Amino acid sequence: MPKIVIALARLMAQRCGASMKFCDRLNGWYSVMPSSLAKLSSWLIRPFSIHSFLTRLIVGALGPLLVFSIFIMILFARQERANQIRGLEDITRALALAIDQEIVSSITNLDALATAEPLDVGAVQDFRAAAARILRTQNSWERLTLFDPRGQALMTIAKPLVEQSAGISRENLDAVMRTRLPVISGFPSPGSRETGINVHVPVIRDGKIIYILTAAIEPQAFADILARQKLPKKWLGTLFDTKHVIIARTREEEKFIGRPVGPMLAEVSALANEQFLSGVTEDGGRAYAAVSRSQSSGWCVALTVPSSEMNAIVYGSVATVGVGGLLLLLLGLGVAVVFARQASRSIAALSTAAHALGRGDSPAFPATSPIAELQELARQMERAGQLLQERESERDRVEGELREQEEHLRRQADLLNLANEAIFAR
User: Fold this and answer.
1) What are phi and psi of 145, to 5 degrees?
2) With contact defined as beta carbons under 8 Å apart, do 249 and 236 qualify?
C-alpha cells in the first residue's frame, strides 16, 4: 500500500512539473518510512514495568483531556472577548439613548412653547414672559432666541452670565425651512454665527413657518450624561457630531472639545448606527471603541478602552480558569499516580508471591489491595498455595505408605528366599 501511495505521488509530481530531485526525495522518504514505523511499533509493543505502564496509561488518558481543556480555554477567551464587546456596546447604546432623551425633551418643550398664543398675532414682547418662565425650568438651557424666517433675531432671553447675542447659521436656517422639522446643530465651526449647541424648532401657523424658536443647550449637560455612567478611570467616553467634532468628553474636556476626533473614531461610518473599532486614539495609544449613534441628532457616542486593559481583563479571566483547571488536572494526576503506585505495589507483591509459590515456598500474600480483582487474585493464589501444600502433604503420605509397603514386600521376599533355600538344603 505505501508503494502505491508513493508511486501515485511521484506520478502527480512529475505531471505537475516537479523536479526529479523532489521525486528522489519522495523515494528517500519511502525508504526511511518502514524503519521509522518499525521503531515506533517496537516501542509501542515492547513490555513495560507495571508502574511505567500505568504512568503511560494515565498520561494517555489525561492527554486528550488536556487538549480539550486548551480548546475550551480558547473558546472561553473568545466568549469573554465577545462579552466585553457586548458590554461596551450596551453602555454606548444606553448613553446614546440618554443623549436622545435630553434632545427630545428639549424639542418637546420647544414645540409646546411654540404654541403660545402671543406668537399667533406676532406679540413678541408678550411671548417673552412665557419664554422666561420655561427657560427657568430647563436646567440644561442657556438661552432662548426667536428668529424670523430670514434668520434675524427678534428676541433673546439668557440666564445670568450667559452671552445675550445669538445667531443661526445659514445651513441650519435652510434645513429648518426646507424640512419644516426640528434641526440640531453640531459644534459650531470657526466663523459660524451660532455659539454652542442649539436646537431649532419651526413655529408654524396655517402651514407656514412664521418663526424659528431656538434653545441653546449647555455642552456641560452632555458631559454630565457621560459622567453619570461612572466609567473606569482608563476608559474614555466621547460625544461627537456628524462632522466628527468633539462635543463632550469624560477627560480633558478643555483640551479636546471643539477639536476633531482621533484617527480611529474618524473611521466611523455615517451610515452605521453601531460599530466596534480598533486603532489609534487621539492620545496616540492603541484602543478598542464601541460606537452608537443618536437617532434624534445623528451624533455618535464612543466608549474607548485601551487595548492593554481590555486584553488584561480577557487574559486575567483566561488565566484564572487556566490556573484553576491546571491545578485540578495536577490534583487528578497526583491522585491517579497514588492509585497507580498502590496497584503497582499490589501487583509486585503478587508477582513475588507467585515466584515463591513456584519454588515451593510458603509466600506471604498482600492482605488488602485497592483493586478488587487483585485482592481476589491474591485470595485465589493463597488458596492455590494451600491446595499445593495439602497435595504435597498427601503426596508425602502416599509416598511414605508406598515405601512402607515396598519395605514389607522386600522383607516378605527375603523370608521366602530363606524358606526356599532351607527346603533345597535338605
Assistant:
1) -135, 140
2) yes
Sign of the CA dihedral with 204 first, then 146, 155, and 145 last: positive
d(CA 255, CA 268): 22
Report residue 374 as a C-alpha cell.
487483585
Assigned C-alpha cell, 360:
515451593
* Sheet of strand 153-158, all strands in order from the earlier edge strand to the far edge: 153-158, 141-147, 208-217, 197-205, 183-184
102: its cell numbers: 435630553
174-183, 273-282, 300-309, 320-329, range with greatest mean pLDDT = 174-183
More confident residue, 412 or 318: 412
d(CA 348, CA 345): 5
For 87-90, the CB contacts below 8 A with 24+ separation are 88/276, 88/288, 88/290, 88/303, 88/305, 89/274, 89/276, 89/290, 89/292
| Predicted confidence (pLDDT) per residue in 246-269, tens digit | 999 988 888 888 888 888 888 888
CB atoms within 10 A of CB 233: 8
